[in-house]
Amino acid sequence: MSGVRVLIGTRKGAFILTSDAKRERWDVSGPHFGGWEIYHLKASPADPNRLYASQSSGWFGQQIQRSNDGGKTWEAVGNKFVYDGATGTHQWYDGTPHPWEFARVWHLEPSLTDPDTVYAGVEDAALFRSIDGGQTWQELPGLRTHGSASSWQPGAGGMCLHTILLDPSHPERIFIAISAAGAFRSDDAGKTWRPINRGLRSEQIPNPMAEVGHCVHRIAMHRSRPGVLFMQKHWDVMRSDDAGESWQEVSGNLPSDFGFPIDVHAHEPDTIYVVPIKSDSEHYPPDGKLRVYRSRTGGHEWEALTQGLPQRDCYVNVLRDAMAVDSLDPCGVYFGTTGGQVYASADAGDSWTPIVRDLPSVVSVEVQTLP
Amino acid sequence: MIRVVLPAHLRTLAHVNGEVKLHVEGQATQRSVLDALEAGYPMLRGTIRDHATHQRRAFVRFFACERDLSHDLPDAPLPDAVATGAEPLLIVGAMAGG
């Protein structure tokens, strides 16, 4: 019988929840790596028992953990992330040049086909790749040495590469996003990159045609239609129908178009989910009501999903990597909050229930649908 | 025999309980002890000092014999009591955050 495994990264460890396909009863395993910040865990699409986790600490730095048994046991693998060649500078918050400094791994994206190949998006922004199961890491320096890189600036959370999308129909095509440089695309497996930010509007940037400098929070795609991208930007929900060549705003009737995560229904490429947040100075839901918004039209028209979610006195946030979907039918949707709750819907968002509710602040949520 | 006490998070990472005991070739210094520690426990590389520069991480401190050795040179001899194993070298995660 098929089932679901939910991989949760928190400020104080990792947790793994499992259920059968009914998604009614959940077993909680963890904390794994208790006391460490777990920015992200993700499983290999090519081997569901191969998991990778980014473990970090302000005291002791970065670790990468690998599991070969679905998260029952783990081993520390390579943690040496060294920029390739001269590091150069980006802009600091005050506009002065600042040398690239490695801080942590924000996001791990395993290859679609090879369990031993995995990409890492890091702060300060760069893309690394391992082809030996995480034992060693090599930078793909074409991104960090792009001609615009000296003008990139960190967002409030640091200059992080937080989104990596691998195109299933074009094996050499990779999309990434950096706060606050914007979105970039490579069509040659990461050797060269170009910004794909045409159509983004950011109030703080005087030049409406600015190639970089946009605070992209998250990008999502449906694997059956990888040329269509959906983006939650610092403000604005955006859509591209040409693999990022141009973007149109699809915020429509959202109560706020600020937010962090965005995701796509597993079986309906035009059904998308966001969690509106009141503003960039108040990182909590509008009116104290935690609402997921769903569009079944690829944007513009949104409906509030509230059943089972707190509709008063709720002031949690949902971070950019903290929403995921399963591929069962009906599609399951999952998200975690900074208050330590993980909510799940087994009916594509119509109703929600907390599957665990008192974890440390949740940083990331990923879901595996198991055979 | 050199005795090293790791902070709790690094004991967990290295899968050790209690003190670590190390054989160190030549003079016992911070560098030679950390070289031996990392050789025996490769997962600790990068957690106490930088991979490339070997500079101590900002929030890690070294103590022994009731002295703070954090700012001693890496090749300075450790106290005799550490070199003989009478006293441990304490690797400490600094308190921070108030």
Any overview of this molecule?
The complex is a heterodimer of chains A (371) and B (98). Chain A has 371 residues and is an all-beta fold. Chain A has strands at residues 3-10, 13-20, 27-32, 37-44, 47-57, 61-67, 75-76, 89-91, 97-99, 104-110, 118-123, 126-130, 138-139, 160-166, 174-179, 182-186, 194-195, 216-221, 229-233, 237-240, 248-249, 262-264, 272-274, 292-295, 303-305, 323-325, 333-336, 342-345, 353-356, 362-370. Chain B is an alpha+beta fold and 98 residues long. Chain A binds chain B through residues 33-36, 57-63, 76, 79-80, 82, and chain B through 7-10, 12-13, 43, 45-48, 51-52, 57, 59-60, 93-94, 96.
Secondary-structure map:
The complex is a heterodimer of chains A (371) and B (98).
Chain A: E1 3-10, E2 13-20, E3 27-32, E4 37-44, E5 47-57, E6 61-67, E7 75-76, E8 89-91, E9 97-99, E10 104-110, E11 118-123, E12 126-130, E13 138-139, E14 160-166, E15 174-179, E16 182-186, E17 194-195, E18 216-221, E19 229-233, E20 237-240, E21 248-249, E22 262-264, E23 272-274, E24 292-295, E25 303-305, E26 323-325, E27 333-336, E28 342-345, E29 353-356, E30 362-370
Antiparallel strand pairs in A: 1-2, 1-30, 2-3, 4-5, 5-6, 6-7, 8-9, 10-11, 11-12, 12-13, 14-15, 15-16, 16-17, 18-19, 19-20, 20-21, 22-23, 23-24, 24-25, 26-27, 27-28, 28-29
Chain B: E1 2-5, H1 8-14, E2 20-22, H2 30-40, E3 60-64, E4 67-68, H3 80-83, E5 89-93
Parallel strand pairs in B: 1-5
Antiparallel strand pairs in B: 1-2, 3-4, 3-5
